[in-house]
Design a protein that fits this description.
The complex is a heterodimer of chains A (162) and B (302). Chain A has 162 residues and is an alpha+beta fold. Chain A folds into two domains: 86 residues, Alpha-Beta Plaits; 51 residues, SH3 type barrels (Roll), CATH 2.30.30. In chain A, a hairpin with a 5-residue loop joins strand 2 and strand 3. Chain A is globular and about 50 Å long. Chain B has two domains: 134 residues, 3-Layer(aba) Sandwich (Rossmann fold), CATH 3.40.50; 155 residues, 3-Layer(aba) Sandwich (Rossmann fold), CATH 3.40.50.1370. Chain B is of the alpha/beta class and 302 residues long. In chain B, helix 4 links the parallel strand 3 and strand 4. In chain B, strands 7-6-5-8-9 form a five-stranded parallel β-sheet, covered by helices on one side. A four-stranded parallel β-sheet of chain B has the order 2-1-3-4, with helices on both faces. The chains are: A alpha+beta (162), B alpha/beta (302). Chains A and B meet through loops of A and helix 4 and helix 7 of B. Bound molecules: zinc ion.
Chain lengths: 162, 302
Amino acid sequence: MLVNYELFNMSLQNKLIVAALCNGTVIDHIPSEKLFKVVSILNLDVYKNLITIGNNLESTKIPTKGIIKISDRFLEEDETNKISLIAPNANISIIRNFIVAEKRALTLPSEIREIVLCGNPNCITNNQSVTTKFHVLHHDEELMFKCHYCEREVKGDEVKIK
Amino acid sequence: MSNNSLVSISDYSKDEILEILESAADFELNPNRKTLHGKVIATLFFEPSTRTRLSFETAVVRLGGSIIGFSDVTTSSSVKGETLNDTIHMVSCYADAIVMRHPLEGAARFASEISPVPIINAGDGSNQHPSQTLLDLYSIFKTQATLENLNICLVGDLKYGRTVHSLIMAMSHFHPTFHFIAPDELKVPDEYKVFCKRNNIKFKESSELHDNFNDADILYMTRVQKERFQDMMEYERVKNVYTLKNNMLENTKSNMRILHPLPRVTEIDPDVDSNEKAYYFKQAQNGLYVRQAILSKVLVSK
Ligand SMILES: [Zn+2]
């Protein structure tokens, strides 16, 4: 009985938070520890319209999750692709007039500019004002990022995000 | 901005590599062709490398071109805080091509993106040094009469040695078999082994030099530098074990040749120098013809 109550409570809690976005974007199922990185790469700290952020919510898929609702902003594909770097299993919904107008599938871009930092201290991008650029490689299932400048490769989950 | 730049060996296809080697052979027969007559080449050495700079500058002079540039970083503007961006913009107003060496990795790639004239990378930190790679290939081609199906034994610092990494990439076009011989501290990084597997290139690894290269066509030696070691005792041990001596060459193949990017420290005993299998001094000379070929390709064939 206890378990059922908790499940009920969880879905209710989550529903309350997701509800009532008229127009905008909902990013759900963000791992809790990645939530503020997502906030940061979308520059939400300077966004002027309503934003609702929930974190450490219970989740059936991951230990705890975060959710972001952004009013009156429809994320572009290059923005949602950035999210795929940090939280590849997040769910993104574009809401128009209270209805889910689009479920955005996350796909990794083949090239990433700016948001990833090179881990090589002797790389030109870490020493002079040069915008970073990485090539996304798939070596036998393993995701790798290769710095366009110093040509070093780094594993997908070890990448440093600005 | 100039797509004729040579930054990394991977910028060249197999055909372009072969084109450079053929052109280098022509320059070896006749080094004084004035293909760069009236051209100004800048040599920007943000870090000193007398050997490489003299080789490039000799190539320019033999081709009838003129040289501007600097090799002394203490008098150049970069130490006074000018960015690479500004230096490249300034120099590209005067020169038809820029040969550059820089201590930061990726410097040449960045320069090639902002420069209206071609950039030739003469070394960017520990990353790339494509003219070295091409002269290694030319030396292999000249001594073996082919690049195909060779046994190539790479010895020494295979972890940090950029010449080795570039050679692995470049030779991958020609079905080699590699034998990596390195002390445990300096083993070839996993990414190059993954690269070999992906490209169906056979390789084996070992840590003993002695009696281990009798099937080699090319024995490519590299410097084992003290700075790479945490443990100085270990360095002393490795230094002694990884010295090639003349008496170790007895059972090697007659066509086998020893290469080394130079300068050497202790990894090849001077008693090897007089052996006909020692090719490293000739290899350095080949650098001139290869650099003539590179300069001509970059500047003449548009
Ligand atoms: Zn880098």
